[in-house]
Amino acid sequence: MSASAPLIARRPRTKWFWSVLPGYFGFTIISFWIVAALTARFWIPYSPFDTVGSRLTPPSFDHLFGTDALGRDVFSRTMAGALYSIPIAFVVVTIGAFIGCVLGAFAGFVGGWRSAVVMRLVDITLSFPPMLLAMAVAASFGPGLTTAAAAMIIVWWPLYARLMQAQVLSVIRMEHVEAAIASGVRPGRLLLRHILPLCWTPILVNATMDFGQVVLLAASLSFIGLGAAPPAPEWGAMVSDGAVNYYFWWIAAAPGVAILSVVLALNFIGDRVRDILDPRKHQS
Amino acid sequence: MTMDGPNHASPSADAKSIAPPLLSVRELIKDFASSGVFALAGSNPIRAVAGVSFDVLSGETLGLVGESGCGKSTLTRCILRLLTPTSGSVSLGGVDLAGLDAEAMRNQRKHLQVVFQDPYASLHPRMRIGDIIAEPLRLLNLSRRASDDRVKELVDLVKLNREHLERFPHELSGGQRQRVGIARALSVNPKMVLLDEPVSALDVSIQAGILNLLMDLQERLGHSYLFVAHNLSTVRHISNRVAVMYLGKIMEIAPRDQLFGAPRHPYTAALLSAVPVADPKVERRRQRIVLSGEIPSPAAPPSGCRFRTRCWKAKEVCSTTEPELRSDGASTFACHFPQAS
User: Fold this and answer.
1) Do A182 and B113 touch (CB under 8 A)?
2) CB A252 within 8 Å of CB A238
3) Is the distance from CB of A154 to CB of A137 less than 8 angstroms?
4) ipTM of this complex prediction, to 2 decimal places
5) pLDDT band at residue B219, thresholds of 50, 70 and 90?
6) Would you call B170 an interface residue with chain A, using a CB distance cutoff of 8 Å?
């Protein structure tokens, strides 16, 4: 080996580039949709609710993505639709993760029969296919965005409860927790200060990944008529409209691509978050 | 590392007969039920600690040695009530810890603290050093200010820098972290400190510093140590008396010089003969006792004497009758055929 050869081989710069690219790509797309959700009402060319042109016109300069069966502008409706899908996903993941974490941490920490009650409830909920359970719950509550969100929370919390319970069980066996018990730390403080701070990583990764799944599930519920009520420009409902008029491809294309881009972007971000937070990745 | 003995006065023999022991462990037993898919109903539990009794006097250091898996760590965890003993008693200053509920036990923890083996694992990775040391102080209900002052005092005591208080454990070296562990244990001024192999995870160059610090602190503050280790040299350095454990039972307890000078139990003799001597001439001529075999499973200990399967002196009686602990001179040992004193 010559004297100038580096002792440690560096990871090629190009490889690094390709490993972070999807993350930035996803971040860009999500940023776009968040901005759209917040500001679309100010810059979309037409009202998303009203008939603004002739029915079923193909894409043109007047109507970028065409018009639907009622003569509404698909571009305006797609942009306005971000205000439905993204907040719903955020609310469902946040509340679902919160409920799941509280119950899971409780189950992992107290153990015994109280843990068994929570975990069996988790098992029962998880034994249903998520789509089927969400449909059943949403149908029994009656259609609407709020009930769809409630149904999705009911489907979603057990995943977090199980994850959190497993995390707490593994952290509670660590020596510094034993040291804290030996120091006379009370149970509440033990859980909040000594156990939970080391439990968040997988929860955060999972929540990011699930975001896309929730967007998809919300769209699915709207597609079968259990989500947003008809005039609302929800993406799933718009795809459903397009499915009825399937000769006119542009009605479903724009909201379909919107769903695809959001789900894909969130999955990319989830992967990137996992890579950043996973300590094993840094050792390689 | 210098291995001259403790320079503090060892408790004298007459003090032993007058003062009641600080920590008194009696017939302590800890079973672990064997579990898993292949565990048969009614299969033997694993008896990690099989009836251990000993006393620790006020201000003394009792060394506890034994090879890996002999139940040393289980014993310390039972004393700390991190595990609940199956039977037996642990009394600290006259209070039986084994029978206390969680709240009463918490109140006793200001008298009983511990320094763990691994200074990397035993400190909360996301807490600042100052907060880690202050954690046991909550037992005393001090004001914020008094607690801060106490933490600064402790940092000086264990010879850390006050700048370290704002750091996180991963920013410290192994020796510094173990000093944090010691400061945490001493923060509430305990009467009894358990040292669970406090130096075995450290570099040899740092071990002596930590051992001397521990001895220095004991001289100043007057607490007792139960020093658990598998390294005989460190035990010899710090202990007043030494107990030798094998497969969940105590084989021999004796004052340090007695045990190292004239071991009575064959197991003790075998352990001591495994310690290398620093002089190559002596080392070459030295007679070593080499034990054959492995430590037996605590789920199925040998009949009679637990050590007989590896003992070169074992006779018929060893497999039928379990030797009781008996005293002869300063030593107490459990053997039918002890070494000459």
Assistant:
1) yes
2) yes
3) yes
4) 0.84
5) very high
6) no
